[in-house]
Amino acid sequence: MTKKELQAAVSAAKEETRKALQTVFDALNKGQRSKLGKDEAIVALFDRWGVDREDSP
Predict the structure, then answer these.
(1) More confident: 22 or 56
(2) How far is residue 56's CA from residue 14's CA, in Å, rounded to a whole number?
(3) How far apart are CA 20 and CA 29, in angstroms?
């Protein structure tokens, strides 16, 4: 595996993880989102993966 192929695979895996976390967050109701937003570990996780925590859907 070349460096370019490895970078592409890592980028794809990171994007897949971000999308999965975003999907889970979007499926939560307002109360569940609020409760998760109070947990610093979860906030750090979402920030690390680039999950948009604004009140979307």
Answers:
(1) 22
(2) 22
(3) 17
